[in-house]
């Protein structure tokens, strides 16, 4: 138990550190845009990506992210998914002080309690048997429909975000990134299964592998946009909630999973939902989070269109 738990917490810390470094790189790239040309785009980070690729901080963030994936793989090797997945949610607890360091203000007790409520809610949800079920053979027709629905949902969220303030804008973009990462996980499973059973040639001619690249790339862009336009801790919290939620929906509708109907799992799911509501409400009304959001919106990649 000790080794997978230690690796799981290490992975959570590295993922949080990677997000903080990537956010720092985005803010630095935005500061170098003296003419503020990026802010006129719907997703300003897209305009800045060439500058990001040349930054050591951004590359350090990616190396840190790779280290997190290696620790996660090691934790999954020595421990079960049910043990490791809830541990990874603690990245929010690591991201909170890293985000507060940007505004030189230690998180107050209220923010810690809100972050613990969100982490506890997601961990409780993931601990329920079958919470993110992706075992079995998927229905590909339903998967295509799910992809189209996900794309339409992301487009709608991004359109709504254009008319919102920095905090809600960042939250909606983070939710879109969470959807992308959940779809990416499903495509990763299909691609890995295809490689093992049908070989490289068959996998290269199948569409899930290409969609894996698209969803991963889209999640990368949207994640950077969320980090660089609002609060880091709020963005991490939204992604941590949306990702397993969408994975659960995919498991039910695409992978043929059957939801648990016993009183215990239902009570755990209800308690998880209550914790998430309390935590999100607490972070949304946190003065520290709002201060961080104002600072990021001024110096980051919050789009001007429709708001200023």
TrEMBL record:
NCBIfam families linked: DMT_1 (NF038012)
Transmembrane segments: 83-103, 112-131, 143-160, 167-187, 207-227, 234-258, 264-284
Keyword Membrane: yes
Domain of life: Bacteria
Alphabetically ordered keywords of this record: Membrane, Signal, Transmembrane, Transmembrane helix
Signal peptide: 1-16
Record-linked InterPro entries: EmrE-like
This protein's record includes keyword Transmembrane helix: yes
SUPFAM superfamilies: Multidrug resistance efflux transporter EmrE
Protein name: Magnesium transporter NIPA
